[in-house]
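Intended use. Records like the one below are meant for learning the mapping from a protein sequence to its folded structure. Do not use them to infer anything beyond what is encoded.
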Amino acid sequence: MKLLFGKTILYGLLIFIALECIVRVCHLYDQYPQFIINDRNVKTYAPNQEGYSVTGNRVMNFAQYHINKSGFNSYREFTPSKEKTDVAIIGDSFIEGLHQNYNNSIGKKMERQLNDGTEVFEYGHSGYDFADQLHLIAAYKEKFELIDYIIIYMKFENDLQRDFYKPDQYWIDSQYFLTSRIQNKIKLFNYVGNIGLFEPLRELKTKVLSLGAETEVKPQVTNVPKQTPKELKYLGNFKKLIETYGFDRNKTAILLDSRTTSPSFLSYCDAMNYDYIDFGKVFEKSKTPTTLIYDMHWNNHGRHLIASVITDYIKKKEKQP
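Structure written out for the chain above:
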């Protein structure tokens, strides 16, 4: 019995080491960049990092990222000047672009399409909402005053849930949790975690913690449009944030999908002369898929279309007197 137990432990250890080696050699693990809250109270990545973003159990996505001196995934440094045309695109993981090689990003595609020396600065960070975006512009006021066009990517359904800015300290702290540190050291755990093998354990933990908790029964309300209260709240948050931080109508536009955006919000933007760039119709007409097969982030074709609609907007603005 002791011999069997010892062999089981030995073989188990050898299998574990072999799998760890396979994961490392084949680079099946994800290298997520370290994130920080910088000296301007902006949530961003620690500067000067390089690595690879890996997704899926069969390496469905393998993309190189490069975090520049400003703490954003980009092929260039952000050095706006009066001598050239500069464009800033600000947003969450869709703009951040960890799903695609950094040298084939939306900004790079825009520069190729414009082909006139325009430089594009990509201020993308996973989880950014409208409060994060306006705070970023205010925090780097001296740079954004030199930038000619500011494009803010907005998802109406989840980017207007608050009317104030506060950096997500829990998100920063989470990378130092014991489980996170173990996954950083043991790449096999990183791999199995990324493909969802730990999800049943997380669900079990949630169920155990919720045992005995009383479930609130909410009264049903009839004949009231479900989205109306949420739309009013989000529009109010939008107004409050603009009141707090300002909004330069002359050089700022909101990038959005009209198919998932409240018509009342679009009407308000029209009334206030806030420019918005609608990529929904372009995506709808596309005969080629615009998103990745394993999540809803834009694929290379989708990112090309996004670059095109922004480029078309800039060209039209340039022709205006």
